[in-house]
Amino acid sequence: MEKYTFAQPPHPYWLASTSDADYPVLDRDIKVDAAIIGGGITGISCAYLLKKAGLSVAVLEADRLGQGATGHTTAKITSQHGLIYNKIKKQMGMEAAQQYAAANEQAIREIEAIIQEKEIDCDFSRQTAYVYTERDGYVQEIEEEAKLAQELGIEANFVTEIELPIKIKAAVSFGKQAQFHPRKYLLALAQDIHDDNSHIFIQSRVVDIDEEKNYLITTAAGKKVVAEKVIIASHYPCYNKAGLYFARLFPHRSYVVAIKAQEAYPGGMYITAEEPGRSFRSLPTEDGELIMIGGEHHKTGQGVDTRQHYQNLVAYAREVYPGAEILYRWSTQDYLTPDQIPYAGYFLPNTPNLFLATGFRRWGMTNSMVSAMIIRDLIVSGESPWQDLYNPSRQTIAASGKTFVVENLNVANQLIKGKLSAVPTDTELEAGEAKVIMIDGDKVGVYKDEKGTQHLVDTTCTHLGCELKWNAAEKSWDCPCHGSRFTYEGEIIEGPAVKPLRTVKGQTD
Ligand code: FES
Q1: Distance from the CA of 255 to the center of ligand 1, in angstroms?
Q2: 461 pocket-lining for ligand 1 (C-beta < 6 Å)
Q3: Predicted TM-score of the model (pTM)
Q4: How far, in Å, from the CA of 211 to the mean position of ligand 1?
Q5: Whose CA is nearest to atom 3 of ligand 1?
Q6: Percentage of the chain modeled with pLDDT above 90
Q7: Contact at 8 Å (CB) between 494 and 486?
Q8: Which of 19-23, 152-156, 368-372 is predicted least confidently?
Q9: Side-chain half-sphere of 295: how many Cα atoms within 13 Å?
C-alpha cells in the first residue's frame, strides 16, 4: 500500500477558510448576569440565547473563538446520532427516546431559524443523513432503528441502496437534516453578543470559580468576573471541585480528511453502523466541492501511532475514490458519557446557578443547541421539557454501571501502566520525533523540532497525574486518563488540566 506523506501539519478546513475574530482579553474586573466559560459553539449559542432573553453575558474563552472542537468537527446538524434511539429506548424507555428525538429535531430548526433571521452566510444546506452497513449482522438493527424513528415522528426510511460508490446491505435515512460551516456560523453569532453590556473575551483562561453571594470567577491574569449565573461550556468542565466529572466523561479522538475526487458527490451525509467507523459529507469551498471522509476513533492517548489513523483514512478514501487528492486533514476530541446522552443542566442538584454542558459524543452541532436551549429555559423559566433526560445528575448514569466501571478501570490501568513502564535514558532522536526518557529518576518527554532544538517537559499530567503519551500526528502530549492535551512546549491545548506542564532543563543540542 502506498504510504502517504503529509507535507503540511494537520489543518482543518474550517480554520483555513475563516479569519480570526478579534476580541479583547479581559483586563479589568466586571459584573454580568451570566458568565459563560468557553467560546465554542456551545458557549456562543448559550450566550446568544441568554442575551436574547434579556441577560447581560460575558463569554470567557481560554484561547480564541471556535478553535477547539467547533473548529475540528464534521459539522453535521442531525438528530441521527448513529443507531441511538433503540439504545435509549432499552436503557431509559420510550419517553426518553421521544425526548431525544424532539430535542435534536428542534435544534435543527432553531439553527436554521437563526441563520435565516440573521442571514448568515455559512453554507447551510438541508441534507438526508444515513447510517449504513456493509455487514449482514447489522441489517436487523438498522431496520428496527428506522421503524422506531418513524414512531418518534422522524422522517425515517429503511433503504438497501445509497448513492455513494459503496455496496451496502442496508441503511436508515433521516430526511431534512443539515450541514454547514460551523465557524462562519459561530463568528456571525458572536458579533451579536459583544456590545456595551455583554462581552466576549478571548485568551482569558478561567483558573478558579468561587461561590460567594454570586459566583466569583478568576482568570489566569488575575481578573475577576462576578456573575449570578455561570455556565461551564468548556468542552471538558474546567471546574474540578465537585461532581467527579473526570470519572464519568471519556475522551475519544477521531480523524478527517477532505479530498478532491474525480467523481461528483451525490449529496447526503453518511456514517457506518459498524467499526471502523467511516463517515462522509460534502464540503462546498471556493475552489469547488470537496468530500470529507472521517473515522478511526480511539480513546485519547491509547491509539496506535496516531499517524497510522490518517494513513488508514487516506487508503480508504482512495479505495472509494481512486485518484483522490488529499487537501486537508484534521483530528478532534470528543467526550462520551456512560449512557451516551450529554450532560446539560445544573452542574449539581444543589447548584441552582451553576450549569454545565458537555459529553456530546460525536454529535456536538445539535447537542450544543439542545444544551443551550435547556440552560436558557432553566434560567429564564425554571424548567425545560428535556431537563430530566439531559440532567447531569440523572440516576441512569449509575444504572449504566458496566460502562462506568469498565471505563474507570481503564483509567486506573493507564495510571499504573504509565508509572511502571520502563523508559530509556538516551535522547537519540530524528527531527520531528519525540520519546520519553529517564532523567534523574523522572520521566521526561523530549521532542526534537525541525531545527534540532529539543523541548523537554515533565510527562506527568497536571490534572491528576497520569503519564502522558506522545501523539505523533498532532505533535502533542496526550493524557490517556481524561484527555488533557499539551503542546510539546507544555502549553495546554485542552483540559481538564488548567496548568501547563513543567518544563525541564536538559540537553538542547
Ligand atoms: Fe486527568 Fe490527565 S486529564 S490525569
Answers
A1: 22
A2: yes
A3: 0.89
A4: 25
A5: 482
A6: 74
A7: no
A8: 19-23
A9: 21
Q: Is the pLDDT reported for residue 252 higher than 70?
A: yes
pLDDT confidence band for 415 (50 / 70 / 90): low
Residue 21 CA to residue 224 CA, distance in Å, equals 23
Residue nearest to atom 4 of ligand 1 (CA): 464
CA distance 494 to 78: 26
List of residues 6+ apart from 285 with CB closer than 8 A: 13, 17
Is ligand 1 within 6 A of the CB of residue 496?
yes
Entry field: residues in the chain: 509
Strand order in the sheet with 485-487: 469-471, 476-478, 485-487, 492-494
Report how far ligand 1's centroid is from the alpha carbon of 481 (Å).
5
Q: Residue 411 above 50 pLDDT?
A: yes
Kindly give, in sequence order, each residue whose CB lies less than 8 Å from that of residue 244, ignoring residues fewer than 6 positions away.
Answer: none
Residue to probe by mutation, ligand 1, list 481, 485, 502, most atoms within 8 Å of CB = 481
Mean of per-residue pLDDT scores for the chain:
91
The minimum-distance atom of ligand 1 relative to the CA of 495 is 3
Residue 401 has pLDDT above 70, yes or no: no
Closest by CA position to 281, among listed 499, 29, 77: 77
Statement: residue 165 has pLDDT above 50: yes
Tell whether the torsion through CA atoms of 8, 449, 481 and 236 is positive or negative. Answer: negative
Q: Note whether 73 and 182 are within 8 A (CB).
A: yes
Phi, psi for residue 296 in degrees, rounded to 5: 65, 35
At residue 1, the pLDDT reads 43
Q: Which amino acid is located at 489 in the chain?
A: E
- 392 DSSP 8-state letter: T
- In 3D, which of 294, 346, 277 has the Cα closest to residue 132? 277
The residue type at 508: T
Rounded to the nearest angstrom, the distance between the alpha carbon of 367 and the centre of ligand 1 is 25
Q: Determine if ligand 1 sits within 6 Å of the CB of residue 249.
A: no
Is residue 426 predicted with pLDDT exceeding 80? no
How many Å lie between the centroid of ligand 1 and the Cα of residue 238? 12
Find the mean pLDDT for residues 496-501: 89
Residue 509 has pLDDT above 50, yes or no: no
Choose between 13 and 430: higher pLDDT: 13
H or E element in which residue 415 lies: helix 401-420
What are the Cα distances from residue 477, in Å, to 7, 46, 61, 71, 239? 21, 31, 22, 20, 22
**Pairing label, strands 442-448, 454-458:** antiparallel
Confidence check: pLDDT of 365 > 80: yes
Burial pattern 459-468, b for ≥16 Cβ within 10 A else e, equals bbbbbbebbb
